């Protein structure tokens, strides 16, 4: 018997495929550039927005897309393919650029 035990509405039950159940209830997230109200849909768009904020591309690791700001020690590391761009990466960008980005539900 494998799975995850869930507690909901006072009832405990075993969910055998928690990923399948979550996908129907989870909302998709998107990164929003707040000054232009534009949803980021590609790395080229993101790179333009970050470049305008003083972030520079960092080519140290060929497996990652990385940006750094010369005036700070911050580093943004993203997966090489945009399809693997997840909410954790979005929140990292928001944390380092609070006034310019936010994460929204689609």
Automatic annotation (TrEMBL):
Belongs to the FPF1 family. This is Flowering-promoting factor 1-like protein 1. The lineage of its organism: Eukaryota, Viridiplantae, Streptophyta, Embryophyta, Tracheophyta.
């Amino acid at each position: 018997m494998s799975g995850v035990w869930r507690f909901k509405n006072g009832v405990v039950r075993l969910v055998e495929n928690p990923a399948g159940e979550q996908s129907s209830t989870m909302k998709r997230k998107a990164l929003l550039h707040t000054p232009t109200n534009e949803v980021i849909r590609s790395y080229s768009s993101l790179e333009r927005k970050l470049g305008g904020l003083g972030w520079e591309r960092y080519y140290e690791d060929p497996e990652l897309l990385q940006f750094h700001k010369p005036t700070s020690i911050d580093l943004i590391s993203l997966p090489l393919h945009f399809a693997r761009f997840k909410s954790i990466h979005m929140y990292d960008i928001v944390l380092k650029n609070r006034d310019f980005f936010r994460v929204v539900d689609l």
